[in-house]
Specification:
The complex is a heterodimer of chains A (about 950) and B (about 200). Chain A has about 950 residues and is α/β, with parallel strands linked by helices. Chain A is about 30% helix and about 15% strand. Among the domains of chain A are: about 145-195 and about 395-480 and about 490-495 and about 555-615, Rossmann fold (3-Layer(aba) Sandwich), CATH 3.40.50; about 220-390, Dimethylsulfoxide Reductase, domain 2 (3-Layer(aba) Sandwich), CATH 3.40.228; about 825-960, Barwin-like endoglucanases, CATH 2.40.40. Chain A has a seven-stranded mixed β-sheet. In chain A, helix 5 crosses helix 23 and helix 10 (about 280-295) packs parallel to helix 16. Chain B has seven helices and six strands, in the order E-H-E-E-H-E-E-H-H-H-E-H-H. Classes of the chains: A alpha/beta (about 950), B alpha+beta (about 200). Chains A and B meet through helix 3, strand 3, helix 4, helix 9 and helix 14 of A and helix 1, strand 2, helix 4, helix 5 and helix 6 of B.
């Protein structure tokens, strides 16, 4: 995956001249007024000018100056590594390893180790700008906000609130992400989303529908208790390098490491067993494992009988997957499938890890469900060392999923029903009728399956499909207008598929606003000339707030730096926009605003008051700050503080942290672990789907309960009525009674119901069974469906996809009409993508960082020697990769056996090129990243998950040719 | 007196380049210089191994033996340092070094051949400890601050160990003892090819 040559220099200067050199046109056309006096100097190739020594001196820690230290959390991935920043006179001069953090124990990958470079900000957007006839022009903040606001109000008047798509971010803090979602609600649309959609949305929905919550059940640290670890579509060594510290420790203690992936990844290099799977065939593979597990009686029958619903449906389905058929479909030899099944069964507790290699498919919601089912069959859920260890992506993608902007639900999975809105209106302190009036209430639209609803109650257009919201015929939309304005706050557009369509969509928009520290690929990929704004936005090192790591721990970030240049934090920009648009008073009713900046602690307190469903209620800013201060008291294996002021708490109060902060719940380190009382982090499976279905109980069997429970068998979720029936009502205080009357554990804002229930040893969400059959899903029992663009067209008849759908997330969505054509005739190779350690997401931030950029200088494509020979492509030469919908990218070939014959792989972090052309000229002056390259998604194709609209990026088709 | 050593545990190294970047962070080395590299052998096929390499601070350092102007010297901790005021940038040390540690800046007035630059074990150079001059020529002197090299301190998987050779050896012995029958990079299994038996 990595060119050996990358270590040695390809280029001499950090600031390469553009391909055609600097000419007058480049300077005048796009450079504009951006930098003023120093501009010319900045354009000279750096080789001619010694790099400013002032900069070096400025960042040098001097012995005569006093250093102060600030603690924050790495802003790259979901491991949540602690960072200690050393400052002198407000300048970030040094970085020390944070040995106190129980999550990383001082360790960093290259991204974490480069955190200090955020203090340089060489390539940042320095001030608000807009495109005026194709030239980037400087604006003041007031001008920018006024112009954007006026345009938005005009669009709203002409087309209604649904003409706006607001994309929030998994890189915002919990508080920022919460405000992003709230902003859209107060503007009056559900067209709001964040990276979680294209990250793990399928996991979140599929897993939650199996046992209650769609999150990592255990933790990175807990993997040290595992006896076997199965990685599917996860390349932890490159995507979550610091997690490998725990994983390799487990391995050294005897745990067997299994990697199943189309590529022989860096993680696979450390595995005991590696199996190469064909992209998009995870379901047959798991059924192959289950076939052996059931046949050999390795399933945990007692566990299944007492805690699982409808495992018999799975037994029946697994019968259709004998070893020969599994080998035929997945490409994994049958002996190996047996070996993996045996290893997982004989080395319990065994855990399963999955990432984007699994989630980004058109049937991924079902795939992840089958993973859960495998773990249920083995009895691995709710035990240390077992679990479904779902590694999330961005540093706060778990938080943004939980509390943030999502098109299909309000904060904390409350949904979009009338009751959901009423709940949040009470928390926000606004009238439900007022919010309703903000939405398009003129008429109802098709909410799917012919059911009519107002847009307020229909999931909005998700980030994976915003381009179709712009391009689709208006008559086919379940809203009154096409999207006309798009605001992206902290989201790269090169992470979404169908780049060529995106360019058309971008050019059709009436307004494009990019609020980001960097211009991103979005600012340059289209030929827009006007109505395009860049708002300089802080990184999380320049502000404060909390972030949720993959293991559900919330960590508090101290502000390290003052905002660089003229940049502002997310929440300040949102406040300014809300004020201009006229709803700031309502939106910030409970939140103090100082100099246009909402007080972060107040935002978290408001969230605490509403987030009962998933227990984001106990993590007050005060408790989180205390944890940050006493990191060293937490045990790196159990995450529990054995002494000190946080004694008894789990690090970062992993959600659910039930009740009010005053209740001092310690957080839940392992989900569904009945070995502990609920008050100490124990749980059972959630009873979220009623008490029975078709006459079969959905509640846990007799004798199944979490430690110390007064109810010794299954029970439904708690409401005020149930409390009364049980005679527990009088345990509530009079104030609690007043609030709790007629409410349930999710809507009682006093927290009384949760407090009393937990006092009696019960889980507020009930004690149910994990479901193997989700009757509300397109496939209640997971069924294999070939990718829309499959290399095995011969299997389509046997394993077809879904029928096309007319209204799904407000859009028509195609399945069968694409799959019915044999694309593999012209596009014979499977095209899949993945991560590099040095970069993350769209990569604008890391490619603009000299320390990281110098390690990974070129976009490339891994090709097997066989395919390279057939196509006449040689190692390290330019080649074209053409996707099955015609998008083409020009990349360097890396001929390697890392990918099998028939599969090509590219990283997805590059941007700044489009179909063979370097877009250097289009960046505002001085902001072009050090490294630019083709965005792989220029060549990716159509395909969306049947439940969550996740995009298909991991199994499509392409052809390659020499360039 | 301690004798400072690096050791990279190839069973743990995942080629994340954390060490390389930590080095950049500590010393602000310019574009074109990486005092530390991660090398991958058998890239992309079974048996792939990565290892982080920089100056190994040899006891009998070949660079020092061949230097025509004798610019190398040893600290009391056995760290190999050099004096850039004496260095003539001839590259003979590069020729002698078994690890490719010496680096030559490519971005200055003398074009491709400047004064030699290499890993200092975060121990600076001849100018006074912690001075601006020392930082600009050699990088930060963490040893003088009582800290160990940042590359090893920040290693993602604790593959790279740096410090007193005895302490490093102690940690590594404990680690390989715990691994038991797990594959090892160095030791009897590798030397005598006992490593073929693998767990199922």
């Amino acid at each position: 995956m990595k060119p050996f040559q990358k270590k040695w220099l390809r280029r001499v200067s950090a600031e390469p001249a553009p391909e055609r050199g600097i000419n007058r046109r480049t300077f005048l056309v796009r450079g504009g007024v951006a930098l003023g006096g120093g501009a010319l100097l900045g354009l000279l190739p750096a080789a001619c000018v010694r790099r400013e020594t002032v900069e070096e001196k400025k960042n040098f820690p001097r012995p005569e100056l006093k250093s102060e230290y600030r603690r924050t959390i790495c802003t790259h991935c979901s491991v949540g590594c602690g960072i200690i920043a050393e400052l002198q006179n407000g300048v970030w001069v040094g970085q020390e390893p944070d040995y106190d953090s129980p999550l990383n124990l001082g360790a960093h990958c290259c991204k974490g180790a480069s955190a200090r470079s955020h203090g340089f900000g060489d390539k940042r957007v320095r001030f608000p700008m807009k495109l005026a006839n194709g030239t980037w022009t400087r604006l003041t903040w007031d001008q920018a906000i006024n112009e954007i606001g006026d345009k938005l109000l005009k669009i709203r008047q002409e087309s209604g609130p649904d003409a706006l798509f607001f994309c929030g971010s998994s890189k915002a803090s919990n508080e920022g992400a919460y405000l992003q979602g709230k902003f859209a609600a107060f503007w009056g649309t559900n067209n709001v989303d964040n990276q979680a959609r294209i990250c793990h949305s399928t996991t979140v929905d599929g897993v939650a529908n199996t046992w209650g919550y769609g999150a990592m059940t255990n933790s990175y640290n807990d993997m040290r208790n595992s006896k076997a670890m199965l990685f599917l579509g996860s390349n932890a060594a490159e995507a979550h390098p610091v997690a490998m510290q725990h994983i390799l420790r487990a391995k050294e203690a005897g745990s067997v490491m299994i990697v199943v992936d189309p590529r022989f990844t860096r993680t696979a290099a450390h595995a005991d067993i590696y199996a190469r799977i064909r992209s998009g065939t995870d379901i047959p593979f798991i059924y192959g494992l289950l076939w052996h597990i059931f046949k050999n009686g390795w399933d945990d029958k007692d566990y299944i009988a007492k805690k699982v619903y409808a495992m018999d449906d799975i037994r029946k389905a697994a019968e259709k997957w004998p070893p020969e058929e599994v080998e035929n479909v997945t490409g994994i030899p049958k002996d190996k499938v047996f070996q993996i099944a045996q290893t997982m069964a004989k080395n319990r507790p065994s855990t399963i890890v999955w990432c984007m290699g699994v989630t980004q498919h058109h049937m991924a919601s079902h795939t992840v469900r089958l993973f859960c089912i495998l773990q249920l069959a083995l009895g691995n859920i709710g035990v240390a060392g077992g679990g479904a260890n779902i590694f999330r992506g961005h540093d706060n993608v778990q938080g943004a999923t939980d509390v943030g902007p999502n098109s299909h639900t309000l904060s904390c999975y409350y949904g979009l029903a009338e009751g959901s809105w009423k709940h949040w209106c009470r928390v926000w302190g606004v009238d439900y009728e007022w919010i309703k009036a903000r939405f398009d209430m003129r008429q109802q639209y098709d909410a799917g399956g012919g059911k009519m609803a107002y847009t307020m109650n229909i999931p909005g257009i998700p980030v994976s499909r915003w381009i179709d919201g712009v391009l689709e015929d208006k008559a086919n939309l379940s809203q009154g207008t096409n999207l006309r304005a798009v605001i992206f706050q902290g989201h790269a557009c090169n992470s979404q598929t169908r780049g060529t369509h995106m360019k058309t969509a971008l050019e059709k928009l009436d307004l494009l606003v990019i609020s980001d520290p960097f211009p991103t690929h979005m600012a340059v990929m289209s030929d827009r000339k006007n109505d395009t704004y860049l708002l300089p936005t802080c990184t999380q090192y320049e502000t404060t707030g909390s972030a949720t790591a993959s293991n559900r721990s919330l960590q508090w970030r101290e502000k390290v730096l003052e905002p660089l240049y003229e940049s502002l934090p997310d929440h300040t920009i949102i406040y300014k926009l809300a004020r201009k648009l006229g709803f700031a008073n309502e939106m910030f009713k409970n939140i103090k605003v100082v100099k246009d900046e909402p007080v972060i602690e107040d935002v978290l307190r408001e969230l605490n008051r509403g987030a009962w469903t998933i227990g984001y209620t106990g993590q007050s800013p005060e408790r989180l700050k205390l944890h940050a201060q006493h990191r060293r008291t937490f045990d790196p294996l159990t995450l529990k503080a054995e002494s000190g002021p946080c004694k008894g708490d789990y690090y970062g109060l992993p959600w659910p942290c039930w009740g009010t902060p005053e209740m001092k719940h310690p957080g839940t380190p392992i989900l569904y672990d009945p070995g502990k009382p609920v008050s100490e982090g124990g749980l059972c499976f959630r009873a979220a789907w009623g008490t029975d279905y078709n006459g079969v109980t959905l509640l846990a069997a007799d004798g199944v309960y979490s430690k110390g429970s007064e109810l010794k068998s299954g029970y439904p979720e708690f409401t005020s009525d149930i409390l009364k029936k049980l005679g527990w009502w009088n345990d509530l205080t009079p104030e609690e009674k007043k609030e709790a009357e007629g409410k349930n554990w999710k809507t009682d804002l006093s927290g009384g119901i949760q407090r009393v229930v937990i006092k009696h040893g019960c889980a507020p969400f009930g004690n149910g069974r994990a479901r193997c059959n989700v009757w509300t899903y397109p496939d209640p029992v997971p069924v294999h469906r070939e990718p829309l663009y499959t290399p095995r067209f011969d299997l389509v008849k046997k394993y077809p996809t879904y029928s096309d759908r007319k209204a799904f997330y407000r859009l028509p969505t195609r399945y069968q009409s694409i799959q019915s054509v044999n694309h593999s005739a012209n596009y014979p190779l499977v095209f899949t993508s993945g991560r590099l350690t040095e970069y993350e997401g769209g990569g604008a931030e890391e490619r603009s960082d000299a320390w990281l950029a110098k390690l990974q200088q070129e976009m490339f494509c891994e090709v097997n020697p066989k395919d390279a020979a057939s196509a006449g492509i040689r190692d390290n030469q330019w080649m074209w990769l053409e996707g099955a919908e015609g998008g083409k990218i020009k990349v360097k070939a890396m001929v390697t056996e890392r990918v099998g014959p028939g599969t090509v792989w590219t990283p997805f972090h590059f941007g700044g090129w489009f179909q063979g052309k370097d877009l250097y000229d289009k960046y505002p002056e001085g902001t072009a990243p050090y490294v630019r390259g083709e965005a792989c998604n220029t060549a990716t194709t159509y395909g969306y998950d049947s439940v969550t609209m996740m995009q298909e990026t991991k199994a499509t088709l392409c052809r390659i040719m020499p360039a | 007196m301690a004798r400072m050593k690096f050791l990279c545990d190839a069973e743990r190294c995942i080629e994340c380049n954390g060490c390389v970047t930590a080095c950049n962070n500590a010393h602000d080395v310019p574009w074109g210089i990486n005092r530390r590299h991660v090398i991958t052998l058998n890239d992309g096929v079974a048996g792939e191994k990565s290892i982080s390499v920089a100056c190994m601070h040899c006891t009998d350092a070949p660079c020092a033996a061949v230097c025509p102007v004798d610019c190398f010297y040893f600290t009391q901790d056995g760290i190999v340092l050099h004096d850039k005021d004496l260095c003539i940038g001839c590259g003979y040390c590069f020729y002698a070094c078994p690890f490719g540690a010496p680096q030559f800046p490519e971005m200055n007035a003398f074009a491709a051949r400047g004064k030699m630059d290499k890993c200092t074990f975060c121990a600076g150079g001849p100018p006074p400890d912690g001075s601006v001059e020392e930082f600009q020529l050699y990088g930060r002197n963490r040893i003088a601050e009582g800290k160990l090299p940042l590359c090893a301190e920040m290693c993602a998987t604790k593959a790279l160990l740096g410090g007193d050779g005895n302490a490093v050896s102690e940690i590594y012995i404990q680690r390989i003892t715990r691994r038991g029958t797990r594959p090892e990079t160095w030791g009897w299994n590798v030397a005598y090819d006992f490593g073929k038996e693998k767990k199922p």
